[in-house]
Design goal:
The chain has 325 residues and is an alpha/beta fold. It contains 10 helices and 13 strands. The chain has a 5-stranded mixed sheet with strand order 1-7-6-4-5, sandwiched between helices. It has a 4-stranded mixed sheet with strand order 8-13-12-11, with helices on both faces. It is globular, with a radius of gyration of 19 Å. Bound molecules: oxa(dethia)-CoA (UT7).
Length: 325
């Protein structure tokens, strides 16, 4: 067995659905502005659940969907930019909740591209080690890192988690992928850490612990990398865009997808979108979308799917999948 397939999917969101109208009662914004600029109508906001709580629930659902016991998981990866703590990893906390006692567990920090990075790393590790099953989870509690007085960011994001079980197989599943980062643009999107301070520091460096973003810069970056990543992955696999059944992009902004679709000369319906309900859930957005599609019966055997993500880092990447089950 040399291939890796996705054998199960799951998602979890907090029950607290917050509409644009509700936000306009807290800050100076409107449903009209948010929906017309982003395509977002609502988002789920945690009332106390942390990233690991949501990750564990999505992970349990994916294991159930794949009919695999937690004890059969060899590798547990959580992609998140909103970990519960600096250390231990959120993945280790999730391991303690769901009881994947035989797994090695670690986090990936690649923000909204984290799930794509996670699939790539898991596939490589399954290929080079004696691992059979990996659980890859994208999970975020972004609401704890938002500045709720900054209307240019707090209306965009939501909380939630999505998960996939990857298994070694004879069938072709994860065909190829391509991940990149552009560190020189790291300041475009940040969530700061601890202040740099100790008895040896002469002048304390205060870090901004809230999410800050240059929206315009990321908007341009996103369109360019979505188009380039899709073209690259098609070219590398000798495929045409018409061979692809669905493209699942990171769910940040409907206008980004519309521009990308126009540049690729492809019908917008090829892009699966659900940001209207969930907002931008960063590393959770692609696995939540995949899980939604699975629940709706949209993933048919041998469908060709491209996942494409971009985000803080800056990072980006794409994965070509043959839906194998
Ligand atoms: O997950 C990956 C990372 N994030 C992204 O992918 C985000 C990418 N960027 C975007 O989606 C868009 O740039 C935004 C949605 C963030 C912003 O849209 P925009 O069309 O670029 O708006 P803008 O920042 O140029 O702001 C236009 C106006 C400003 O007012 P003035 O200066 O023209 O008077 C803002 O103050 O809209 C104002 N504004 C708002 N008005 C009402 C900004 N936020 C809001 C708001 N409600 N929530």
């Amino acid at each position: 067995m040399k291939e890796v397939i996705i054998e199960g999917l799951g998602k979890y969101t907090p029950s607290n659905l917050v509409t644009n109208d509700q936000l306009s009662e807290i800050i100076d914004t409107s449903d009209e502005w948010i929906y017309s600029r982003t395509g977002i109508k609502s988002r789920y906001i945690s009332k106390g659940e942390n990233t690991s709580d949501m990750a564990a629930k999505a992970g349990e659902k994916a294991l159930e969907n794949a009919n695999i016991s937690p004890l059969d998981v060899d590798l547990l990866i959580v992609a998140t930019c909103t970990p519960d703590m600096f250390t231990p990893s959120t993945a280790c906390i999730v391991q303690s909740i769901i009881g994947t006692d035989n797994a090695l567990a670690f986090d990936i920090s690649a923000a909204c591209s984290g799930f794509i990075y996670g699939l790539d790393v898991a596939k490589a590790m399954i290929g080079s080690n004696n691992y059979k099953h990996a659980l890859v989870i994208g999970a975020e509690n972004l609401s704890k890192s938002l500045d709720w007085e900054d209307r240019s960011t707090c209306v965009l994001f939501g909380d939630g988690a999505g998960a996939a079980v990857l298994s070694k197989s004879d069938n072709i599943g994860l065909i190829s992928s391509f991940c990149k980062s552009v560190g020189e643009k790291y300041e475009c999107l940040t969530i700061g850490g601890n202040d740099v301070d100790s008895p040896f520091v002469e002048s304390k460096i205060i870090r901004d612990s809230k999410l800050r973003m240059d929206g315009g810069e990321i908007f341009k970056f996103a369109i360019s990398v979505i188009v380039n990543s899709i073209n690259k992955i098609l070219e590398e696999n000798n495929l045409d865009i018409n061979d692809i059944d669905y493209i699942i992009p990171h769910q940040a902004n409907v206008r980004i997808i519309q521009y990308a679709a126009k540049k690729l000369k492809v019908d917008i319906d090829k892009f699966y979108m659900n940001m209207e309900e969930y907002g931008n859930t960063s590393g959770a957005s692609i696995p939540i979308a995949l899980s939604d599609m699975n629940e709706k019966g949209l993933l048919k055997k041998d469908s060709k799917i491209i996942l494409v993500g971009f985000g803080a880092g800056l990072t980006y990447g794409a994965t070509l999948i043959n839906w194998a089950i």
